[in-house]
């Protein structure tokens, strides 16, 4: 019960601070397992995606997040486990004992959708999008029938600039593109390039709103 109250408060706060709106440009919300893959500029990225989902979809959507960050401290741990039901993965391949692709595949098989960030780390540079890590390809190979929806988050890096503790009010948009799947015989780099281009295609052009 308390987790649901905190979740509602988080949604209200995110909407108040960012004025976030969802733009379902390439597909409609659907309560079925999907992989929503987005650009990554802030620790608050998945909260905005989660916030613009309809409530029925939000109930089954699970962010994929770094175990070391979200298990550091009681507050983050509570949010990860009791509010967002995050799939927490170990980023250090040398020390992890659980396969992260297996973790994500199991969540999809159980009926959840995933929110993940294929850049693998926050993009703090000038490039609009970092090269994708290979995990998106291996997950698509493991779950070839699951739709993969590109999601562009616009302006959150201005709401939560690096080094700032409190957010700065600024309008954000979350744009959902057309779903894609791994093609028959498609090679890893070709798939990663195609997925990355699908995400970049959602980026607003100079002079666009948002």
TrEMBL record:
The keyword Acyltransferase applies. The keyword Transferase applies. GO terms for molecular function: acyltransferase activity. It holds the Pfam family Acyltransferase. InterPro entries: Plipid/glycerol_acylTrfase (IPR002123). Residues 34-156 form the Phospholipid/glycerol acyltransferase domain. Keywords: Acyltransferase, Transferase. Pathway: Lipid metabolism. This is Lysophospholipid acyltransferase family protein.
């Amino acid at each position: 019960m308390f987790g649901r109250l905190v979740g509602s408060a988080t949604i209200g706060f995110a909407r108040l601070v960012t004025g976030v709106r969802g733009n379902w440009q390439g597909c409609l919300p659907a309560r079925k397992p999907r992989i929503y893959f987005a650009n990554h500029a802030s620790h608050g990225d998945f909260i905005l995606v989660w916030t613009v989902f309809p409530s029925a979809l939000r109930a089954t959507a699970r962010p994929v997040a770094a175990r070391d960050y979200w298990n550091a401290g009681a507050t983050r741990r509570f949010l990860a486990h009791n509010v967002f039901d995050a799939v927490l993965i170990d980023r250090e391949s040398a020390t992890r004992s659980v396969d992260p692709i297996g973790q994500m595949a199991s969540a999809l098989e159980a009926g959840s959708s995933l929110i993940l960030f294929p850049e693998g780390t926050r993009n703090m540079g000038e490039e609009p999008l970092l090269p994708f890590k290979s995990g998106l390809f291996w997950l698509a190979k493991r779950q070839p029938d699951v739709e993969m929806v590109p999601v562009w988050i616009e302006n959150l890096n201005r709401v939560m600039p690096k080094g700032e503790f409190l957010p700065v009010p600024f309008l954000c948009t979350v744009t959902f593109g057309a779903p894609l799947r791994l093609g028959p015989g498609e090679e890893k780099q070709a798939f990663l390039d195609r997925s990355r281009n699908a995400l970049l295609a959602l980026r607003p052009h100079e002079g666009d709103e948002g």
